[in-house]
User: Fold DYW domain-containing protein from Aquilegia coerulea.
Amino acid sequence: MVHGQIMKYGVEGFLIIRNSLMNMYCSMGCLLEARLLFDKSLCLDLISWNCMITAYGRCGEVEAAKDLFEKMPERNLVSWGAMIDGYVMNGEFSEALKLYNDMQVSGLKPDAMTLNVILGTALVDMYAKCGCINVALDLFDGIHHKDVILWNAMIGGLAMHGYGRDALELFFDMRRHGTLPNSTTFVTVLSACAHSGMVEKGIGIFESMKEYGVEPGIEHYGCLADILGRAGRVHEAEQILSNMPMEPQASHWGALMAACRTHNNIEVGERVGKHLISMEPHDGGRYILLSNMYAAVGRWEDARNIRREMDRKGAKKETGCSSIEKDGSLEEFVVGDTTHHCSREIYEMLDDLERAMKMPGIAQDYSPIDNLDSS
Assistant:
């Protein structure tokens, strides 16, 4: 109605009015309407550009924010801060640090707020992901004004490295400090519960989400199913995935399939495996996992039939590959590859490891599953 009155009186073309309208639409999350005003404007100033970049970053559309940022005819500290904040809010901390460096190169000096957003959250996240948990915690404790993004970074770092109970305790500290958890917070906390075997805690946290105004999404249901699956409660996990209000992804069923394999539950595993194959008929890994389950319980004919079906459909299993950064360069290792410049030394080391594993006291898995004859 307000916009309609502005158009009626013919003042929409005034820059201050147009910027206010854009800010109004951005505040309501109506980015299409705001962008339409932006694109129609014959005259734009820094406020116009910064408004749109900030809105895109806060709504998770980082690429759109980046596109506008790169097209800006001029930038000020607010422009750089808005783009950096967008990266941080969406977990792209390395990009935030890179942009911070670019800002310094451009000659702009960051203010205290910009430094807090970048160095506070990005460094905590970096050290936590690298496994330097004590360093990350020291940095985290030294930051006085903690927002939900910083809490999420620290909780996620603890969860990633197996400190599930510490992650859960930090989650409770977050609530005691008056910071409301968001959707990302619950993903990290539920993941921590899954990897630490805290089943009842995880279920309780999942059920408490709506108390904080957070509606469980597909990732939260997936975490809950993972919590139950890892604990061997695969029937309950199957029910969660089957009855969730949205369609589960293949990755969710795959995690449940792996849990069935771990806990040797052929009943649920067979159902889930066949469902996975119907979802991804050209993914060879799905056939192999089900074939392995059959072989583990002595159902050799079923195992061979699955391998034959895999061959008939031309499904391929992705070749195993890993990579590591060393002295600034990326080294990649592929199963069966002999082209690497250190392949001789690598295979010699693998032979040494194999010999060491055959020493007394080392438990080995001699399962011949992967060599199963499918002819």
